[in-house]
Design goal:
Layout: H1 2-12, E1 17-18, H2 20-29, E2 39-44, H3 45-59, E3 64-67, E4 80-84, E5 87-91, E6 105-113, H4 116-134, H5 140-167, E7 174-176, E8 185-186, H6 188-191, E9 195-199, E10 202-206, H7 210-218, E11 234-239
Parallel strand pairs: 2-6
Antiparallel strand pairs: 1-2, 3-4, 4-6, 5-11, 6-7, 7-8, 9-10
Helix pairs in contact: 2-7, 4-5
Length: about 240
């Protein structure tokens, strides 16, 4: 999936890079972290918008599908996933029980310049989505309807207002996009100009200074973690012919 997505980005001139644990795996293991179970890529917001525009057509006649709220009403997160329809997984938190697409996936995160306070506020609005999804009094259709209304409120009014406020206080650092519930920042001087890195025998896009990027996120990133304390994202996986 990742090699295919890399080819799509190259074909359309879309900037992306391996992110978080996927980049850590490339640097430390030459590919996947042996106990990892997902893939993360990151893009500037403008490239992200271009990617989710071209992906539906690119996915035609393939086994892949773009997952956003527009393609899957039960999916209410503000970043996209690329799913493999020849597989099925269950995540440990089971938020994915509401999704139409439940195959193996790549997380597609976007970043944008934004003051930390405004990004924090965007995550507070998203917190209500999680409360609804965890409420045992709602059935799945009620959850989809209620979270869909919150998603629309965020996308149409709250996030545009926060982005307008953000332009009043220009930032050099990049945050994950509004509503993506991770607080770590990305520094442009660590990212650009992008380079490539070996990942399972393929040269894929990487931040310019991967060591600085990883050191800021993980400290001594070359040190292996305590495997007894690792929490996996998924607890069930099926792959079909």
């Amino acid at each position: 999936m990742l090699v295919w997505l890399d080819a799509v980005c190259r074909r359309h001139g879309i900037r992306y890079w391996l992110g978080s644990g996927t980049l850590l795996g490339a640097v430390r293991h030459g590919g996947f972290i042996p106990w990892d179970d997902d893939v993360d890529i990151e893009l500037p917001r403008e490239d992200y918008q271009k990617l989710i525009t071209v992906l539906p057509q690119e996915c035609e006649d393939t086994n892949y599908a773009l997952q956003t709220h527009d393609t899957d009403p039960g999916y209410v997160f503000t970043y996209a996933k690329l799913r493999d329809r020849r597989s099925y997984i269950e995540e440990t938190n089971r938020y994915d029980r509401l999704f139409r697409l439940q195959g193996l996936f790549i997380d597609i995160f976007f970043v944008e310049p934004m003051p930390s306070l405004l990004h924090w506020l965007s995550n507070r609005t998203l917190g209500h989505v999680y409360k609804i999804m965890r409420n045992p009094e709602y059935n799945n259709q009620q959850i989809i309807r209620k979270t869909g209304k919150l998603y629309a409120l965020n996308q149409r009014y709250i996030y545009p207002t926060l982005r307008w406020l953000g332009r009043l206080f220009p930032q050099k650092v990049l945050h994950y996009g509004l509503g993506i519930p991770y607080e770590s920042i990305r520094r442009p001087e660590e990212l650009f100009p992008l380079t490539t890195i070996n990942f399972e025998g393929h040269q894929l896009s990487s931040p310019h200074d991967a060591a600085a990027y990883l050191s800021r996120l993980y400290g001594n990133f070359q040190q292996l973690p305590d495997l007894e304390r690792i929490h996996l994202h998924t607890h069930k996986m099926e792959i079909y012919e």
